[in-house]
Design brief:
Number of helices: 5
Order of helices and strands: EHHHHEEHEEEEEEEEEEEE
Number of strands: 15
């Protein structure tokens, strides 16, 4: 099962004090090992789900009928595409053509002694197993916030929110007993990672935005399938992060407040039915994230900023503007592990995209595009 995990970063260990470099290196290596293992595990579980679906079809239909059914499906696809060619296809009523194709699909199955209902049930059961196999992004996820609609809550989170941090104003200190330290543009360090899993008929691609000095980051994930079989799927996970160096004044967990302006946020999806008992689902998620490069912290902390879910098998397109460009949003995040007083290490704040899709004889074109400006990150250590 094709899958990969790759990472690139600018995290020079010589920027840390000598005594902290070994611990930082262990944290970075451990993170890569966890992410690589997670990608391989998702691929194995998804492949096992597909193998189970294929076995159910073979056991129920028999090898000869299964081959005959696939040939009938291929013939129907070619005929449907040919019907759209000019000049005859210029006035084609797609709704009627699709309805007729579905009737032919059921007829073809019944001629082979196959109950279309059983095919749908096998497809649905396999789809559920694939969804479970692809899972959710590793990390502790909470909800993100629109700053404008949660202004009172934002102002109570930190004494520094009396100042225009977004304009680069850095107060001399937080007067509270456990003060926040403010980080923001320009940043000089960064971390990016990409994890994809795809079946043979899918193409998964990523692109990212990274202008560290201005705090501009973003992810674009595409998952395309032009000719799906009975059991095709894909997932894409992209992390793009701006990184700074932090020294813990005390032992405990990191509490981080991230103020981010959204500049673009779109969920786009187009599906086209290819067969009579086909099915499909797509899920797209975008998060703001906290990544602590420390061996005691085993996963990112995530704030869900946008979610899109779609299923069905009718020809359809979705174009969803999820967030308001130019608007501030924030994430209130806690690390899932503790650091020790005096530890000096890298901390990343950024955005994660996690998209996944399943196609059973449905053409799928999925694209998510989320762009952010990280305006400030406030950090302190709490028990």
């Amino acid at each position: 099962m094709p899958n990969c995990y790759c990472a690139d970063r600018k995290l020079p260990l010589d920027m840390l004090p000598d005594k902290h470099r070994t611990k930082a290196a262990k944290g970075i290596d451990a993170q890569d090992a966890r992410e690589r293992k997670a990608a391989e595990s998702r691929a194995r579980k998804a492949e096992a789900a597909l193998d189970g679906g294929h076995k159910q079809l073979r056991d129920h239909l028999g090898a000869r009928n299964l081959v005959a059914l696939r040939e009938a499906m291929d013939h129907a696809r070619r005929a449907q595409r040919a019907s759209r060619e000019p000049p005859a296809g210029l006035g084609l009523d797609l709704a009627k053509a699709n309805a007729a194709r579905k009737r032919r699909a059921d007829t073809a199955a019944r001629k082979l002694g196959i109950d279309p209902k059983v095919l749908r049930e096998i497809g649905k059961a396999t789809s559920d197993r694939v969804l479970a196999a692809l899972g959710t992004p590793a990390g502790t996820a909470t909800a993100g916030f629109s700053l404008a609609h949660n202004l009172a809550k934002w102002q109570k989170l930190s004494p520094l929110h009396q100042h225009p941090l977004d304009l680069g104003v850095r107060p001399p200190s937080d007067p509270s007993p456990n003060p926040f330290q403010v980080f923001g543009p320009d940043f000089s360090l960064w971390n990016i990672a990409f994890d994809r899993v795809e079946s043979d008929n899918f193409r998964v691609r990523r692109d990212y935005t990274l202008y560290e000095h201005s705090g501009a980051i973003g992810n674009i994930a595409t998952m395309d399938c032009d000719d799906a079989g009975s059991f095709d799927f894909a997932s894409a996970q992209i992390d793009t992060e701006l990184v700074f160096i932090y020294t813990a004044p005390r032992s405990g967990r990191l509490e981080v407040l991230v103020d981010a302006m959204n500049t673009f946020g779109h969920h786009d999806l187009t599906i086209e039915d290819e067969w009579g008992w086909s099915e499909h689902w797509t899920h797209q998620y975008n998060y703001l994230s906290l990544n602590v490069f420390h061996p005691n912290v085993s996963e990112r902390s995530l704030a869900l900023m946008s979610q899109f879910d779609a299923d069905g098998n009718e020809d359809r397109s979705w174009k969803v503007r999820a967030l308001t460009p130019g608007t501030h949003y924030y994430a209130h995040l806690l690390s899932n592990g503790t650091v020790q007083a005096g530890d000096t290490f890298f901390v990343g704040v950024g955005t994660r995209t996690f998209d996944k899709t399943r196609a059973n004889d449905v053409e799928v074109h999925s694209r998510s595009n989320f762009q952010w400006l990280i305006r400030s990150a406030e950090v302190r250590v709490v028990p």
